[in-house]
Fold this protein.
Amino acid sequence: MMTTASSDTKTAKYMSVATSRSGLTAIKQLKSDPLSYYMGNRADYGDYVRIKSLPGFDFYTLTYPTAVEHVLQTHQKNYRKPDVFLKPTILLFGNGIFTSEGDFWMKQRRLSQPAFHRNHIGAMANIIVECVEKMLARWDAKPDGSQIDLQHEMVHLTLSVAGRTLFSADLTDHATDVGNAVREAFEVLNHKMNNYPFVFPLWVPTRDNKQFKHAKGILDSVITKIILERRKNSQPHHDFLGMLMDARDEETGRGMSDEQLKDEVLTLLVAGHDTVAASLAWTWIMLSKHPHVRAQLHDELKSVLDGCNPQLADTERLTYTKMIFDETLRLYPPAWGQPRQSIDEDVIDGYYLPKNAFISLNQYTTHRHPEFWERPEEFDPERFTPEKIKSRPRFSYFPFGGGARVCIGQNLALLEAQLAIATIAQRYQIDLMPGQEIVPDPTFTLIPRGLVSATLKRR
Ligand code: HEM
């Protein structure tokens, strides 16, 4: 739907051109350090910027909340996911809900939505706490003060939660393989996106393609196992997989093909664990670096839970726990950028945008915008009191995206994080080993780079 009148396009302003950050400089910086590139671009050229990267290929960075709202929500029908993003990601996710577009996407989204309804998610609270308990039992068996890799532990935890809540499957034995396969696949996808369209098709046996196929093979075999085991089991399941398997096309009455089912399950498995693992790892990093916040968290846990494990009903009162997670998602949004492409020309906040323009929305930069966030680099959960949230524009904070394609797993992710933080923090103090420089790795999901060594101290 084009909602801008052509008279608007005639009077619209042109966006500033990032002269010192265009051409080869842009390409090099975007490949080596995209977070600094986008932050610097906003600081130097503002919120509406045109970047000339390759001859004939411009792209636009929009960081002002009203512009984000325009693209993701109010004028979302004029924007699609671009091929530079879709073509590589389809290699991993196939035609699942994350990568499909148009009517097909809408059908899949309608089909999946009920599984993520608040009422349905609530029933998952006990399963989440059980998964955390299982991890803590493993930690309990270690001597006090043992060392762990935070990212690795959180991937294990969130994979077991995703397996149990979405597919009623125990993925504990596959956690390391799946976690590694996801990272290897993301690395190759990132390379393909950065070099699109100058990339070899998957059938060419380059090192990258071999790495990707190996990773995808591991993921496919885990997914196939989940589906086969379910088919063997005739009992009804009210989880996400059950809903997908029971779904029937309104016109043909046919169920989903095996291929489609595999794509949806893989999408959910990957999207459902990797983002939550990253944000939980960042949460422990932030808590270790901010002892006063951690002390306040412990006060809340003492007064609300007093040593008991949290239940669904407790989450309403675990407000500070939630604020800590919100603030972590502000500074380290796992989905740190969202690419889009205009279908028709448009005018955004008075600025002209041509047809087919490639747009980069950037959570990382908007979440650190000095107009909306005082001392933006500082970790301060108090920013997320209800009053403070109300005082800011809606799209100054969008870790889960927005509009029709807003994250389908948002409620599940928030519930999982709140319960995991509360359950773990009551039992363990997690401290970063000294002397580590922890920096974000934006290869795909924003994870801490490399190993994050921490010690576990029983409380
Ligand atoms: C902290 C955790 C999470 C974050 C920050 C996050 C972030 C996002 C964002 C920003 C999008 C929009 C992408 C776009 O429009 O370009 C998205 C979409 C999606 N997310 Fe999440 N996500 C999280 C957890 C989850 C979980 C737990 C699940 C599933 C169990 C999930 C499944 C999906 C799916 C399927 C989509 C595609 C939806 C569609 O296009 O209709 N996510 N997520």
